[in-house]
């Protein structure tokens, strides 16, 4: 294997684990000398590109007593060999791919060894051996003319353009979720999403600059299925939901200065995340959540319907549960406003099991005592990392499944209920695959209206003090 070619050397020099990658490539050459390295431009599913190394060659496969060569192409990510390669068949225009257990309709190869990749126990040599075994059981190509001569069927093809999702239409995204930020909340979010949601892939990116970093090593040690641990933001490309839990608290005494460190952290990650996943819904859980959701919206360039904060969703789910189980109202309820003492409870005018579109019931003398009593019953319930993680997973599930469930999430409140300022606070929003849609505003009681007014003024004054 000649790694001395100028283009190959130039690209390989950018690999994060250069020396280890070279060692692995030399091992591949000793066992499979026909796998030739070359340079190429890898196109991600969101249209972004990166110069990477690829291996092109044939693997020998025995089928019905005869030996054949299967043409394949392996793209090596820049974190190779700690991340698995992207493996594809390379058929001619006269051939069709036989979709099966280990190959999809676009020629993307899926093997157990790829899903459970764990270097150094995993290697490309081991992967190629596994590929040969699987293809001997179930050959992945056939002829359009039904010609069964494998010599013709498995012709070598070059210059095929691929991306990390095959030829999938850009609107057909896989259920990929990325969680940005380490610590207890990041870990709780990862575990909760795995338990609650059906995801094809979950990427956990531990931000080095975050004060909540840590935990990713344990995920790497225990090698959870469908979870990729990375420190490279580009691993989040093509996500449907991006959850940001990172915080960067400083030792400064001023509250504004403390929050500004988080704003500065976001400036380094949010635009990049939005660029890598332009169709994603961004879900913010960093603190203070209403301010940081506002910051993320400004920095991302995404529409406000696709930047939301975890906000008062946890309190809202607890409130609905208490009203239903303890007070027998069987009505959905939400907590709105800022995640502070100025929170306001409101109730739906439809039952929990109703198929009718949820609406906020106008404040009345009959509902206020119930809401106040339920609110009192919630007072001793803190927001621990695992409970916030469960709330985030619930929101994520509504987006991934296009559930159209109403959640109280932090959203752009301008124009709702007479709010004129550009602020983010928690309001009941219907969540689906395209993001959030606010429920219509209603007239609140004098006390509730005053609390919301104070919240809007406080948030508006605070956001003006940050360098976003």
Automatic annotation (TrEMBL):
One of its GO terms (biological process) is lactate metabolic process. Residues 2-145 form the UEV domain. GO terms for molecular function: L-lactate dehydrogenase (NAD+) activity. This is Ubiquitin-conjugating enzyme E2 variant 3. It comes from Scomber scombrus. The lineage of its organism: Eukaryota, Metazoa, Chordata, Craniata, Vertebrata.
